[in-house]
Amino acid sequence: MNEIPKRTIIQKYHVRGILITVILSLLLIFSSIMTGVDWSEFFSNLGQFFALLGRMANPDWQYLNVVVQPIIETIQMALLGTTIGTAVAIPFAFLAARNLVKSLLVRGVTRFVLNLVRTLPDLLLAALFVAIVGIGPTAGVWTLAIFSFGMISKLFYETVETIEKGPIEALRAAGANKIQIIVFAVIPQVINNFISYFLYTFEINVRASTVLGYLGAGGIGVFLQRSLSSFRYDQTAVIIIAILIVVVIIDSLSNTLRERLL
Length: 262
Prior knowledge:
Blueprint: H1 3-35, H2 39-44, H3 46-55, H4 64-96, H5 104-119, H6 122-133, H7 137-160, H8 166-173, H9 178-212, H10 220-229, H11 233-261
Helix pairs in contact: 4-7, 4-9, 4-11, 5-7, 6-7, 7-9, 8-9, 9-10, 9-11, 10-11
């Protein structure tokens, strides 16, 4: 008797899977038509990609001594930018949470600011800060700080809004003020998620700082841009390998820490 309902459920999800696949395929086709994407052109020029890989097949390992310091600078930029952005994002996250702030005006203004910050592209921010503070890691740090602020603040206030209301109501009934409620009822419930989001953003910033270097925002991206501009693909291969190693190490450490926290 139980086999019939099981088969019905399986068939139901099978049909849903087919419908979702068809819808996604249609969206892909219509998007390609509307944007003018020519897939045949990509495959016809695929040989150039393999030719480029062939030129990168013999890395200049002596160049590794040159990229060590820029790699360290990239990690430092990501760490500083993430830390600054997180420090500023925490109070904004509490102001944007509807279960902590009842004023619609305060929440609305706060969320508008956060939406505005997230609207600004990273490359635009990097170009602005390069124009303000000049070429170097300082521009990269401030760019990553603003990017981190926009992303972490949204993740933080969404996490705060999902906490249990019991501890908050108990402290309010006992006459606790806003600061006491946040310290004793909110932070203990969200601290693990906060740390997880910090580590996740740090991972993203390490990768993003590589791209920001193209605009002169410091880090390994500057050397990547130089090697590509001078057609030294053997040096480019060394930079890519170094970035890959750093990203894998940071990703492994972050995943380990998140697993232990959560």
